[in-house]
Design a protein that fits this description.
Elements (H helix, E strand, L loop, with lengths): L6 H29 L5 H29 L2 H22 L4
């Protein structure tokens, strides 16, 4: 998304991202409900909720001032590459069941 200069294409990509994010979060929540022991579910979902609400302000605190120094498109491209690399790393480390 950081490499597009055509704004309607950017909006279309944001729409697809919103749909994909909803699908991923629903899948993660379902898997956690199925695989977490009943006595630990409150703790697990409490931690998940804390992470969701805690990392948003942290991201704004880091990337807000950073966007004053570095162009936003470059931040988006570098963070996208880092996300892809993390996906490959997690896939490599996580055993397939």
């Amino acid at each position: 998304m950081g490499m597009t200069v055509f704004f309607p294409l950017y909006l279309l990509l944001m729409l697809l991202y919103g749909i994909a994010l909803t699908v991923v979060q629903t899948t993660v929540t379902t898997l956690l409900q199925e695989r977490t022991d009943f006595s630990f579910r409150g703790r697990v979902f409490g931690l998940l909720s804390s992470m969701y609400s805690g990392f948003l302000p942290l991201g704004m605190a880091v990337f807000g001032p950073l966007s004053d120094q570095v162009p936003l498109q470059r931040i988006m491209v570098v963070s996208g590459i880092a996300l892809i690399c993390m996906g490959f790393f997690v896939r490599k480390v996580t055993p397939v069941q």
